[in-house]
Amino acid sequence: MIGPMCYNGIYHLFYQDNPKGAIWGNIVWAHSVSTDLINWKRLPNAIYPSKPFDQYGCWSGSATILPGNKPIILYTGIIDKNKTQVQNYAIPANLSDPFLQKWIKPDNNPLVVADHSINKTAFRDPTTAWLGRDDHWRISIGGRWGTMGVSYLYKSKDFMHWVKAKNPLHSRNGTGNWECLDFYPVSVSTKNGLDTSVMGSSVKHVLKVSLDVTRYEYYTLGTYSLEKDVYIPDEEMVDGWNGLRYDYGNFYASKSFFDPSKNRRILWGWANESDSKADCVKKGWAGIQLIPRTIVLDPTGKQLIQWPVVEVETLRGKKVKLSNKMLVTGKKIEIKGITAAQADVDVTFSFNSLDKAEPFDPRWDRYDAQNICSQKGSMVQGGLGPFGILTLASQNLEEYTPVFFRVFKAPNKHLVLMCSDASRSTLKDGTGAYRPSFAGFVDIDLTRKKLSLRSLIDHSVVESFGAGGKTCITSRVYPILAIYDNAHLYAFNNGIETIKIDSLKAWSMNRPEQMNQ
User: Which residues form the Glycosyl hydrolase family 32 N-terminal domain (predicted)?
Assistant: First the structure.
């Protein structure tokens, strides 16, 4: 992912692409546009290596809209074989072109060069800029010093001459290299999105980092100190590898942007392939952009809430509904009448009691939900759960990707585990493949004894949103039996406690169309 933005009613997606193959390398900034975030038109590549300041690669960055409604791109250029990284800019050649198809890289690049205190081979991905109350622009650039992840801060009066601040915006020992940073405000009192430059007592700030070491992301919520120009995570935040994640599955290099046309902040993530490199080469492509998500602060102030943009509902076709169906131990109900390989399913489960919840084993790592899910899979009987849906299932369940909940009783509270388990997703040879039992915990009050789940299913991807978007998990899977019309969708329960399907709505999903000129 590189730089999404909304400009004059047109959504622009700039993204890393290798025009010479299906594996990483030869990176350029590809460019697509849309009027609705669903139907897209591919344009010529926006930025590609051509100058001394980016001749070895054009890596990630961001887009910013400057005063006067002038978009500008900041990106990382690779200048030598040692992967020395500098920060460059590009501007549209013609602002009257609604699609901004041609971009110019002026010769006063690079704008930012690492000084002696910075690891110049780990210095990349400038953020969207924000304007301070002192009328100076600020950006943050990811990096590391030893094993410390660092979010460097730079300031500029004119956007052309940048000075490194005395202190980084934030840093954390033991986290390794930070890349694809995102820093933005969220409202504490409304669900409206905010421009990146909004600040003050009515907002919290979000700092998200992509971890080069682990290949997943985490974020914290906190306060941006205007006086000290530093970000301070809230006390209860886990600031490190065990921190909150946007998505506990195959989700990386995400980027958010403010959409002024609908007053919302949109988050966009990238999902790499989970099959082998040979499979990617064979099919000729790799990696997908996931469905864009709106992102708001949870009313508790302790986490973010994500939900698919409303525009995805324009793809809905045939609809089926179920309600008041009981799932006793071992029962499954097939959801018929829709295209199970390409579907949107939204279900609310309820139960009468928490008494049968299994005790949470004190030997388990509270932060290693994935390991717990690998032990307590969808077919391992529990007390309260596992219950959920079996997606992309073959008729005899030789293949299936379950998305489910399991409730545990800890000493002082109940813990809700949510899993999206790819370990049984395909009979295909697993050499070089990655099929984990992705999982995360859901921070939810179970007083009402209800849990909701929405999953977007699209052949090789299952995006799931638990409890209204409190916990999200994306899986990439490659069934060979459960494909097209041979894919099935079930609701199931393998716990002792009977589960009720309060309501279930499912739609066949149509294929997006390429946007017309």
Answer: 3-308
